[in-house]
Amino acid sequence: MSTEFTFVVEKSCPICGKSTRVVKVKSRLVATQVDNDYCCHYRDFDPYLYHIWVCEHCGFAADEKVFLTALPMSRRELMGNALVEKNVHFDFHEERDVPDGIAAVKLAIFCAEVLKAPLARRAGITLRLAWIYRLSGNREKEKVYLEKALNLYIRSLETERYPIDTLTDSMVMYLIGALYADLGVRDKAVLYLSRLVDEKNRRNLTDEKLYRDARRLWQAVREGTAETVGGTEPEAKAEQEQAAKEKAAAPAKKAAPAKKKSGFSRWFS
Ligand SMILES: [Zn+2]
């Protein structure tokens, strides 16, 4: 089977071991726009609807790389039992509409949580869900999942060791800045992006494209010309004002103990 943009292949499910049909996207897509958070817009097609493979037998859902990775028996049992308990049933369709795509990604988030996948990987899946909402015009839900992805990336940067998959801590720093910019929280966006464009840290950032992207977005946010999901700036301001009041009212605290030199602290020490 094949459509203009997709084709079907058979793969073995890493959880139940049965052969299942999965949909792959043809590589001849034409990109029309790339957003600050690297969401890519393509002509007449949304590949994020197909990013997740779902087993048509047990309902296990993950991206291609995870789906093709063998798991030890204990993890297979843990995942299989969780899917049975949740009573998962996902019909196979070669063509996915927006609700199908959203259901697949939500199922993948559930599976990643059960398997205790790295926070950075869970953040990436969540960000793709936000992009599906963006590309289908649902700004309210887009914002909800941008915030969830942002919080996962922040927790990841504080606690996880990089690289994770192909992600470096500099990329995650950029994404956190970009997501704050999307959400209209300009001071936090500038804070994170400035760590990447600061000349002091320049020697640590060997990724030239990432440096240029960070610098361009840092300037746009400072000038107030970066695109946002909309309507969050007043909230962000109110939050800042409240934080300033609390800070003024609180007695001086002792400095926090030094954290280990990884992730977040590498940039903020
Ligand atoms: Zn399966």
What can you tell me about this protein's structure?
- With 269 residues, the chain is mostly helical.
- 51% of the residues lie in helices and 10% in strands.
- It contains ten helices and six strands, in the order E-E-E-E-E-E-H-H-H-H-H-H-H-H-H-H.
- The strands form three sheets. The protein has a two-stranded antiparallel ribbon with strand order 1-2. The protein has a two-stranded antiparallel ribbon with strand order 3-4. The chain has a two-stranded antiparallel sheet with strand order 5-6.
- Strand 3 (31-34) and strand 4 (40-42) form a beta hairpin.
- Helix 4 (119-135) runs antiparallel to helix 5.
- Mean pLDDT is 86; it is low at 231-240 and 251-269.
- The chain binds zinc ion.
- The site of zinc ion (ZN) has 8 residues, from loops.
Keyphrases for this structure?
51% helix; two-stranded antiparallel sheet; binds zinc ion; 269 residues; two-stranded antiparallel ribbon; mainly alpha; 10% strand; disordered C terminus
Mean pLDDT: 86
User: Stretches where pLDDT falls below 50 for ≥5 residues?
Assistant: 231-240, 251-269
What percentage of the residues does DSSP assign to strands (E)? 5-15%
What is the structural class?
A: mainly alpha
Number of helices: 10
Number of strands: 6
Please summarize what this structure is:
The protein has 269 residues and is mainly alpha-helical. The protein has helices at residues 64-67, 73-86, 98-114, 119-135, 139-159, 169-182, 186-197, 208-223, 233-249, 263-268; strands spanning 6-12, 19-25, 31-34, 40-42, 52-54, 61-63. The strands form three sheets. It has a two-stranded antiparallel sheet with strand order 1-2. The chain has a two-stranded antiparallel sheet with strand order 3-4. The chain has a two-stranded antiparallel sheet with strand order 5-6.
